[in-house]
């Protein structure tokens, strides 16, 4: 008999028909006359109740059915007489694929802390919480591809191995084939990279943006969606060493076009999740954040505030609020400042623009005042910055001057400057950290809980 996924079992047309389900046991209860097993196959947050009539089965047959065991059950789908479910399966045949010893299976009990589950990353996807998070992650990934495809963007695969540091962060994972126990060195005592695979230092990318700009100046509108890497030694609820970034880049867009694209895009993704992952979102709201659904609906129903950095700093300085980090013009705003603007002052998302050039990347277009650049950050409740972007500097001379000013090696940037020599155009783009978006949509508070296998300092087990 063909298997029916549990997410598809609630079809009224299947009532009274024989069905086949396969999955993992969540719970088992009952008495000597009847046994009830809650089965879940990962396709939905909902379990299907299997009813075992003990006139048809022996206790020895059912004894291996414990939490975590995997089953293959065939039987008739009938309307349920009990509370909590609309249908159940009256079992006719049972096959046990795999047992789970009650003394060893670490997810035997309910109510495990998220900290405990992080130590069981190989098994935590089987819990209701992480099943919900991972299904929402899939839903949002699909929404991202659908949005850009439907808006005429092309998906561009940018390199994961690079010789340039897009952000100037300096915290990159080096990629090498050199023998670290016998590193070749030149006469100057420095590492001889001529013997390395690429003949020069190479690292894992922190962003696909620079290469994305090359795609935009050929295809018009592109987006990247792939893993990026930061070697920052940050053990915080907001940092990962490996995370996923979405980075659209659009030729002929200015900063205003960029802001509108960011707002339309993120609203689309959140609305798509509300419509297509409602059961999982409602479960997480019930378990972790009762305001989650209202907050999501509020974001998609309100226009984002457009505010300059200078105006934002003035609001913060005049707020009378005592911040942990001081606020002044030229400061790189902290999460507490961003969240105050969003949660306390405006009570809706804010797009902050025109930052001081000293705290932003070299490639951002300078404003006429010579002090600020056409940068933008989208600020969200509970998160702070969720999107960062800018209009890019399209002038060869201005970009060259900025590169020289910051001392960026020309040997690493010649190819980027070439795009300003041959048919340069105004263009803009932004980056959205996928896990930051997931934190907002799921209501989770630690970024390690919205990625299947978190990579953080001293944590690379699987």
TrEMBL record:
It is found in: Cytoplasm. Its main location: cytoplasm. Pfam families: tRNA-synt_2 (PF00152), tRNA_anti-codon (PF01336). Keywords: Aminoacyl-tRNA synthetase, ATP-binding, Cytoplasm, Ligase, Nucleotide-binding, Protein biosynthesis. Residues 134-452 form the Aminoacyl-transfer RNA synthetases class-II family profile domain. Its EC number is 6.1.1.22. It catalyses: tRNA(Asn) + L-asparagine + ATP = L-asparaginyl-tRNA(Asn) + AMP + diphosphate + H(+). GO terms for biological process: asparaginyl-tRNA aminoacylation. One of its GO terms (molecular function) is ATP binding. It is an enzyme of class 6 (ligase). It comes from the Bacteria. GO terms for cellular component: cytoplasm. HAMAP family: Asn_tRNA_synth. Homodimer. PANTHER family: ASPARAGINE--TRNA LIGASE, MITOCHONDRIAL-RELATED, ASPARTYL/LYSYL-TRNA SYNTHETASE. Belongs to the class-II aminoacyl-tRNA synthetase family. This is Asparagine--tRNA ligase.
